[in-house]
Request: fold
Amino acid sequence: MSDARRDPPLSEADPEVYELIRGEDRRQRESLRLIASENYASRAVLEASAASLTNKYAEGYPGRRYYEGMGIIDPLESLAIARAKALFGAEHANVQPYSGSPANLAVLLALCEPGDTTMGLSLPAGGHLTHGWKVSATGIYYKSVQYGVRRSDHRIDMDEVRSLAREHHPKLIWCGHSAYPRHLDFAAFAEIAAEVGAHLVADMAHFAGLVAGGAHPSPVPHCAAVTTTTHKTLRGPRGGLILCKEEHAKAIDRAVFPGLQGGPHNHTTASKAVAFAEASTKAFSAYAHAVVANAKALAERMMERGYTLVTGGTDNHLMLVDLTEQGISGRRAGIALDRCGIELNGNAIPFDPRKPFDPSGVRIGTPSLTSRGLRSEHMATVAELIDRGIKEAAAKDGEPDQAFCDGLRAEVAEFLSEFPAPGLGEA
Ligand code: DSN
Reply:
């Protein structure tokens, strides 16, 4: 136990946890991080996340709280709201959702009744659990109709979306994804939603940073509400955000608190405010465009090496690689690459004949490496490192020798040593 009067630093108070955190810093510094939903938050974002604001309760909203002592929290939350609205051109923002899944549940609570019909992209086609997949509360308490992608080109079939919407008359239609490498046609979704009287809701968690930086079309003008996490391409703290039209503002606010959550995490609100300010800069816009340029370059370099990419490339920050021809599953490839200092995740490909826990593909994203300053000209090296790891893993039935893994890991760390990892300081 720490001595409250002495209040020692973490390294003294709890060396075990301190060392684990330092170990994670090292791992993040030395690994080629390609998980499409991850990133490096800036030092300023991390600093705000660790503030004394964590000590304060603040149930309610600015000016209408159930606690006293709001002299700082109220202006802080108002600042975060104003920055979020300005960044995305939204009429209303709620910055309290703990993360993306609670944000999505709050939207359902605000705009639907239990048992209402919703539509969303199915998980195996690249959608998210919370867009109505059967094991999620969003698929258990709402009648969920799922649309998919075309067999021929693995792109969302707007004709299928339209005919399902006409047949099922959903109250709400989700557009958004966790693993879809192409832009979404928000205008076409909005037209279908208007025709059947549904609320259109975008979950832009994966590409919110690209939208903020002008490197991806924005769903905001087309949608009743837009949800996002704040920690993916947006590079903020782990958290959520809901944007909506003014007409839904009261319902959304009531759904977040008291409908679903208690006290907001004020330290995270502060950190979100910092991230929104960072994301409104010219430097962030350049970052967002570089994320997309890097993804396109890496996709090309992977295809030159003989890999099959779902849809034949990417418009955004991620690609899905089908490893069927390489003769190794996505999961075994992911585990082997992790031993080599290369992090990505096994991912189902559309119409995957394999099980979701051991799928045929891997998902690769460029947000993290772009935050370290890697640019298109470095993607040939990134593709080569991935390719060597996958080939060796396939040749050794998913179990490359330790010496090979140690060698590749050292090469990865050496390559990355020129590109400092934001937020982690010096080694
Ligand atoms: N499923 C997570 C991802 O895309 O990695 C986000 O919830």
About this structure: The chain is about 45% helix and 15% strand.
